[in-house]
Every structure is written in C-alpha cells, then in structure tokens.
UniProtKB/TrEMBL annotation:
WD repeat windows: 150-191, 192-233, 245-277, 278-319, 320-361, 362-403, 404-438
Record-given protein name: Uncharacterized protein
InterPro entries (UniProt xref): WD40/YVTN_repeat-like_dom_sf, WD40_PAC1, WD40_repeat_dom_sf, WD40_rpt
PROSITE patterns registered for this protein in UniProt: WD_REPEATS_2, WD_REPEATS_REGION
A Pfam short name: WD40
The keyword Secreted is assigned to this record: no
Superkingdom of source: Bacteria
Record's signal peptide: none
Keywords: Repeat, WD repeat
Species in which this protein is naturally found: Chloroflexus islandicus
Coiled coil: none
Gene3D superfamilies reported in the protein's UniProt record: YVTN repeat-like/Quinoprotein amine dehydrogenase
Length: 438
C-alpha cells in the first residue's frame, strides 16, 4: 500500500513523530510567550503555530517563534523576518502596501526566560537570506567607487585619518614623518618629524585642533595642528616600548594607547599624566578604540581576544573570542551598536556591542586584514588587506559590495571621511588612494 506524504515531505510514522514534536514545542511556546503571537500579540490560541527559524534545525524553543498562522506562512516564505540586532520586524517590498506593512518596525516579543528565547545567530541567518532576496537599492550597488586622487607619500604608509571637518588628511609613515594633506586638492601642507621612530598610528582630536601619533620608539606625541608645535609626550621607550595604536576619547579628556606592554594605558590628553592602566591582555596590543559616546573602550592584539572596557570604573565588561590569529584592528560603528575586528587569520567579525555576540563572520581570501573602518551611515565596512585589496562590505548581511585594486603592495589602512563621500586607503607602496563613491 502506498504511503501518504505529509506537508513536510515526511512519510508514515516519521510524519507522526514530527507532528508530535511540533505539538510539544507549541505547548512550550504557548507558555513561554504567555499565549500570544511574538509579532502581532494575537492571543487566539487556535491560530498560533510554532515556526522553526532554521527549518532543518531541532524543534526546540531556541530555534522557534510562536506566530499567528498567516505570519508563520510569511516567515517560511521569506517575506517577513526579524533583524537579529534590533529585533525589529522587516517585511518584503511586496507586502508594504498590504495590511502586513503595519508590522514593519514592530519589536519582537521575547520570553522572560533566557533559555526559551530565540537564538540570535539563527535569526541573523534568516535575516541574511531575506536580504539576499531583496533588490539592491544602495548607492554602492549603483556606482562603483572611483579613484579620485593619488597622493605620493615617499614612505610606507602605516596609518591615515581624516580631520573632523574633512579639510585635512593625516598620514603616518615608516620614515617617522607625520604629513598633513589639504583637501580637496591633496596638497601637502605640513611635515612634522615625530622623533618617535616609525609612526604606527595617527589620530585627530575630536575638535580637530590636535593630532597624535603612536611611535615604535619613545612612546607617543601630540601636536597642535595649526602650527605643528609639540604639546604633549606620552610614555617612554624604556617602560612602554613601541606603541601601535592611539585613540582620543570623544567627549572626554583621555587618550588610550596600546603597544608592546600587554596593558592599555590611559593618559590625560591635556598634560600627558597617566590616568590608569587596564591589564589583562597576554601579549602585544595592536589596536584600541573608544565608542562614539566615550563610555566604552575596545582593545585587542596578539592574544586573539577582543576586550571591552567600561570607562567610568575602568572595569572589563567582557572578552570576545573567535579569531585564530593576532587581531590587528578594532573599531566601533558610528552609532555605537556594533564593533568590528580583523587580523592575521583573514577573518572579519562584526559584533553586537550590547551582548558581545558575533553577527557576521566575513572570510577573505587575501590573507591578513590590517585595518577596518565603518562608513558614517553605519551601512558599510571597509577593510584593508595584505593582498593589495580594499574591500567594502554591506554590514546588514555581510555581502561584499566592491573590491578596490590598484595598490602595488599590502594595504595597511583605510578611513572613511566624516561626510561619507570619500574613502582613503594607505599602502606599503608609499601612496594614498582617495576613492569617491558619490
């Protein structure tokens, strides 16, 4: 006798067992969600169904949502999804003018018990598949970034940064010189001899009046931009060794440095006095970055661990792991919700700041990644690669939008201009390329 297939494609007793497992899951979810749809709030139990986020995954609460029957169908069809970071509902364009359009932007209801909440990794996967089905409407999908200017630096470029008003670009180089370039014409305005060896990192103060550089010898220094006068010296070669990263605190008076010493040093930006030490790393610290509000600090290096610090009490919030080789770059998104890290393993992680969970893991075929930068609108992430390539990724789904070639040696640094219309890349080929994508 021929067996009958179930709607799930499972036959015979297998279908019965699946049906039984889903009913058990439904009962668990009815209790977990207080008998209401996780999206609409509907409390008619007869129309509430469990939906597996990963259809091939287990029938367990972490892989499920309790939805009204029609929303279950839309979720399965990829016409409705949940943003894993914000937990907001997204609907496909073809639904926006229907009754379902009103659901867009609603926040997903979650069970009180953490163990019964949907897994955000699974939500992120479903969200990514949803985004891949949508037509590309962003500017980078319409026009490829074009080379606008080429600056000859005359030395290997280790670091670069735009001034807050976008009137200058600063470069730090292997020859120990800090160069200030005028924008938009790219004229060299000033060359400052650092006297701290190779300049590994350069950064403007939030008001654009000062600029700091981290050196391979004798610590770090801060100069006045207007005339190049030395204002502050930080650290010394005997105690701290090489500095590889430096960052000004937004809305505060601190500077953070990372280097050979396996601790983050905090300094008063005005006079260079030591303010505090954040111990805990096991090895060289390659990168430090403040959050946009100045309340958090990221640090990472050769121990492959990304550490998040709270500034008000100098405490460790969490350690984030995932890299299999030294981390070379960490950065916050401009809205402070995300962080990104990259290193010698060629992997780029995008992390959610509020709980330290990775949202994306981007694998690259070009070897080590040395530098990362979020676009000012939080939509894109640029990465600088050993393989002479700059990549631009779309943050929401991890899609690779563009690869920018042209450098003849490894790309060591990338930075978006504050206005968002320019991207600069520096390289060991002793040039800076300025790209325009508007």
């Amino acid at each position: 006798m021929q067996q009958r297939s179930s709607p799930n494609g499972v036959v015979g007793s297998s279908a019965d067992s699946v049906s039984s497992a889903l009913e058990v899951l439904r009962q668990k979810l009815l209790v977990a969600y207080d008998g209401a749809c996780a999206i609409s709030g509907c409390q008619v139990a007869a129309v509430l169904r469990p939906v597996l986020i990963d259809p091939h995954g287990p029938a367990e609460p972490h892989n499920a949502l309790l939805l009204r029957a029609d929303l279950q169908i839309l979720f399965h069809a990829g016409l409705l999804t949940i943003d894993a970071m914000t937990l907001e509902v997204l609907v496909a364009p073809e639904l926006r003018d229907s009754e379902y359009g009103a659901l867009a932007g609603r926040r997903l209801r979650q069970p009180n018990r953490l163990a019964l909440r949907p897994n955000r990794h699974l939500l992120a996967t479903h969200h990514r598949l949803f985004q891949l089905e949508q037509p590309a409407t962003d500017a980078l999908a319409i026009q490829r970034p074009l080379l606008r200017q080429l600056l000859a630096v005359q030395s290997w470029v280790n670091s670069l940064t735009f001034s807050p008003d976008q009137q200058m670009l600063a470069t730090g180089s292997w020859d120990g010189m800090l160069r200030l370039w005028r924008l938009p014409d790219g004229q060299l305005q000033r060359v400052i001899s650092g006297n701290i060896g190779e300049l590994n990192a350069v950064v403007f103060s939030p008001d654009g009046q000062r600029i700091a550089a981290a050196g391979r010898q004798h610590g770090a220094r801060i100069w006045r931009v207007a005339d190049g006068e030395l204002l502050v010296h930080l650290g010394d070669d005997q105690r701290h060794g090489a500095f590889f990263s430096i960052a000004f605190q937004p809305h505060g008076d601190l500077i953070a440095t990372g280097g050979w010493d396996p601790a983050v040093y905090l300094w008063h930006a005005t006079d260079g006095r030591l303010s505090g030490i954040l111990p805990g790393h096991d090895g060289v610290i390659n990168s430090v970055a403040f959050s946009p509000d100045g309340n958090l600090l990221l640090s990472a290096g050769h121990d492959r661990v990304l550490r998040l610090w709270q500034m008000h009490d100098r405490s460790l919030v969490r350690a984030m792991r995932g890299h299999s080789d030294a981390i070379f770059s960490v950065t916050f998104s401009p809205n402070g919700q995300l962080a990104a890290s990259a290193g010698g393993d060629g992997l780029i992680f995008i992390w959610r700041v509020d709980d330290g969970q990775p949202l994306q893991m981007l694998a690259t075929p070009s070897g080590a990644c040395f530098s990362l930068a979020f676009s000012p609108d939080n939509q894109y992430l640029a990465s600088a690669h050993y393989g002479r390539i700059v990549r631009i990724w779309r943050v929401r789904d991890g899609a690779l939008r563009w690869e920018l070639g042209g450098h003849n040696e490894s790309v060591t640094s990338v930075a978006f201009a504050p206005g968002g219309d320019l991207l600069a890349s520096g390289s060991f080929d002793s040039t800076v390329r300025i790209w325009s994508y508007q």
